[in-house]
Amino acid sequence: MSLKHGLLGLLKYGDMTGYDLDKAFKSSLRPAWNVQTSQIYRELGTMEEKEWLSSRIEIQEGKPNRKYYHITQEGEKELKLWLLEDHVKEELYLRHPFFLQLFFAGENTDEENVKMIQILKERCHSEITNIETMYRDAEEYRNIVKDENRTKYWQLANMLGKSYYQNFINWADEAIEFLNKKEGE
Amino acid sequence: MSLKHGLLGLLKYGDMTGYDLDKAFKSSLRPAWNVQTSQIYRELGTMEEKEWLSSRIEIQEGKPNRKYYHITQEGEKELKLWLLEDHVKEELYLRHPFFLQLFFAGENTDEENVKMIQILKERCHSEITNIETMYRDAEEYRNIVKDENRTKYWQLANMLGKSYYQNFINWADEAIEFLNKKEGE
DNA sequence: TGGGTCATGTAACCTGTTACATGATTAG
DNA sequence: CTAATCATGTAACAGGTTACATGACCCA
To answer: Which residue in A168, B30, B42, B84 has the fewest CB atoms around it within 10 Å?
Structure first.
């Protein structure tokens, strides 16, 4: 999607290594998507070529060296522009194989589909739990950062993430009821 | 995502050309995502190589010839398996740049962000209108198909699509209220 | 006379995914 | 003793995006 800009955003909090960024991304932007570690390293490479980032290597003993990335002025400019762009235009799709599966679910039996919808529900419940844990873990950062402007939007992102999964759960309940009623007819 | 399986599903309704599939996809699976026409042709090519499809060419006068694709037994088997797989596992992410944007929205002013959220709302309203039109247009198919098992799931997909966008709208209202309240403090 | 529909694609590029590789240290 | 953590990547492939090309017909 826009991994590059996600990384730029995280690097505004401070210099980090690819490893740190991987963890930071996975623990804060998880509702967005699951990034591949290898992709992060690749993107960091091309971002450095574009001069959005600079880097320095810290030598460690016993452990592998750490390569710290730092956001440049170019990078900050790029991030600022991206944050003001309208990304809502064409990219609001419900991009899940599950939706296709549902559309063609008439090819399966109702029992098979109910089972699938139940799995969806469970999965969404556990995602909500993850988000709540994530958010509680972030409390400490909020105490350190004390930048209300930032934390305000973390809260909004948190609300959006949770309601997104809650919506699947609500739909799943309605769907199961609907299928049972049809069954009884 | 799984364009190949989406195309297989559509071809179960009857033989179609790439052009037809493009239109069918865009008018029924639109809440899922917007496929590139060129990608459909490419995928059809590889699907034919895999022998999930066979094709025949119908010569037309004045207009370009039409290349009809037909789902093979191999293709049907593949679709059946795919429809029973668990696609909910790792792929339920809210995969939108908007989420990243929101997470880092503290870099913008509140006014800029409220404007952005309002654009989101409008866009979601128009998506819901699109889905409703789409669904009404599909009524005729439902009368022809008369396969209640299929149409039942079209209805569920329709419900999911609408609630997905409605959820953004509800969130947007809360978010705007939240930002205004914070502003007043 | 210009734009839309019909109908097919190719080429290049960018992004995402999967698999693999290394090698030391630390905790259960 | 085994698994996890620390920390870096490369290679190959699959899937998505953008730009371009062709050419006739139809409608305002």
So the answer is: B42
How much is the pTM? 0.93
- Residue matched to tokens 């948190």: A158
Chain A residue numbers with beta carbons less than 8 Å from the beta carbon of B77 are: none
Q: Which residue of B has its CA nearest to A83?
A: B101
**Of the options 1.10.10.10, 3.30.450.20, 1.20.120.80, 2.30.30.230, the CATH number for the domain spanning A1-90:** 1.10.10.10
- The DSSP result for A149-172, as a single string, is HHHHHHHHHHHHHHHHHHHHHHHH
Is residue B7 within 8 Å of residue B22, measured between CB atoms?
no
Residue range A69-93, pLDDT digits in tens: 999 999 999 999 999 999 987 778 9
Name the residue among A87, A90, A100 with its Cβ closest to that of B9: A100
What residue type is assigned to position B133 of the chain?
A: T
pLDDT tens by residue, B115-142: 999 999 999 999 999 899 888 877 766 6
For tokens 């740049």, the residue is B97
Q: In Å, what is the separation between the CA of B112 and the C1' of C3?
A: 37
Please say whether the beta carbons of A131 and A162 come within 8 A: yes
Do residue B127 and residue A92 have CB atoms under 8 angstroms apart? Answer: yes
Q: Which of B34, B95, B123 sits opposite A1 (nearest CB)?
A: B95
Does the distance separating the beta carbons of A93 and B92 come in below 8 Å? no
Determine the residue of chain B that is closest to A25 in CA distance.
B100
Using one digit for the tens of pLDDT, what is the confidence trace for A93-115?
A: 998 999 999 999 999 999 999 99
